[in-house]
């Protein structure tokens, strides 16, 4: 039996199998994929934070500006590097004075339409998330909101830019508006890939092996959690669902205090997964094959063959998306003013 017939048969597509055409099998799989994954949006729009050009441009500057950190040496982009698929390829990221937290920095790409932000879902959206690291003593270490506003108001170009971004407000330079601007910029950080092209009707966008891998991914049960436009990011799940997984991190339990949330984390998106090692909340898994095997064992109770692991890995490579280099390019940041506080390494 040829590869196309095997694919068609495994999908239960008797008509495609009898017709024996690769195009029919691909079309059927693309249709199934659209039902499971939907469509990646161009932007993750929010009625609470309408997108405008002035707000987005301000948010881009703030995203890259290290002066939002106590020592002027850590920006959003330090841990969520847009040139390396929105993270830094480290188990955990260095912050103020080189301190490191206990969790891996997730990618900021395609994150704005997730169910929530952070591994434990403690922030409702990217705007709320943007407020956290700036004041975290391990990350950017600013002592309080007032200190952040002092910096922003002391940089001559920023007040005018805030006024343009929030024209209806009498005092536009606020901590909330800083977060809204960063969030607006992040809401367009999408990375469409050949996978999306395939779902959209370009049946030649994926290779034969990638098509087979997509089928293996679906049939194995990975889509139980990794579904929707993000191929994940849309739900919470217990790590060690069918077999206990050894970790000291209790996940959402630390936020809710509910026993049902012990070891529960937000399901990560698999978009750009080939580029965002190491894996898991603690960055403890170094390779993609190891991660695929571990997920199958602890979440699905399955022991995958080398061929199945390789097939899924091949499919996951098709989720590597296209980065808009012009949109994500570091802008020229406004100069500090005479009243801008000096870096503080303490």
What is the element layout, followed by pairings?
Blueprint: H1 3-10, H2 14-19, H3 22-37, H4 53-64, H5 76-79, H6 126-135, H7 145-154, H8 158-165, H9 175-186, H10 194-199, H11 208-220, E1 236-238, H12 253-256, E2 264-266, H13 288-300, H14 306-317, H15 325-328
What descriptive keywords fit this protein?
single chain, mainly alpha, Cytochrome Bc1 Complex, Chain D, domain 2, 2 domains, two-stranded antiparallel ribbon, disordered N terminus
Description of the molecule:
- By secondary structure, this protein is mainly alpha-helical.
- It folds into two domains: 3-37 and 192-317, Orthogonal Bundle (Cytochrome Bc1 Complex, Chain D, domain 2), CATH 1.10.760; 53-190, Cytochrome c-like domain (Cytochrome Bc1 Complex, Chain D, domain 2).
- 40% of the residues lie in helices and 2% in strands.
- A two-stranded antiparallel sheet has the order 1-2.
- Helix 1 (3-10) runs parallel beside helix 3, helix 4 (53-64) runs antiparallel to helix 8 (158-165) and helix 4 (53-64) crosses helix 9.
- The chain is globular, with a radius of gyration of 22 Å.
- The N and C termini lie far apart (68 Å).
